[in-house]
Design goal:
Layout lengths: L1 E4 L10 E4 L7 E3 L10 E5 L2 E5 L4 E10 L3 E9 L5 E9 L5 E10 L5 E7 L8 E11 L8 E9 L1
Antiparallel strand pairs: 1-2, 3-12, 4-5, 5-12, 6-11, 7-10, 7-12, 8-9, 8-11
Amino acid sequence: TASYTDLGGGSTRPLSGSNAVYLRSSLFDLGKMKEGIGFAKKDSAGTSYLLMPQTEGSIQLKSIDVTGIKAIELTGFGSGEATEYAIEILIGDEKGRSIGKGKITFPANKQKIISSIPIATDAINNKQDIFFHFKKIGTGNLNRAFLKSFRFIPK
């Protein structure tokens, strides 16, 4: 929120103006998401997570401004079985322009993991829908890992 009042001058009285801008948090708690293709919701000890997909899946974040963002950090927890997913980040729609690719690797334990994916946002200067496409690398794994959050990392 900002406001300003000038000094006026001569026969002009002082003028005032104010404005408020609402900023979103750079952290998206994925346990609060209502939808995600191929993902299932999991609650544990009062905390919600998304179960990683068996083979592939996608998550959409609507109307996100990625101006000045250099990477997206993903946080999750292993399930006790090692597994890895390829990730592609697209803008506009699920077949849109790719702005980043990377991997998230869950070790064979239940530890917290953080994976950062660099993104190219130089040509983006407005709000766009962002799609995260996950594709499992390899086979197996009866126990699916958990995805907790996305965090946008500024330049």
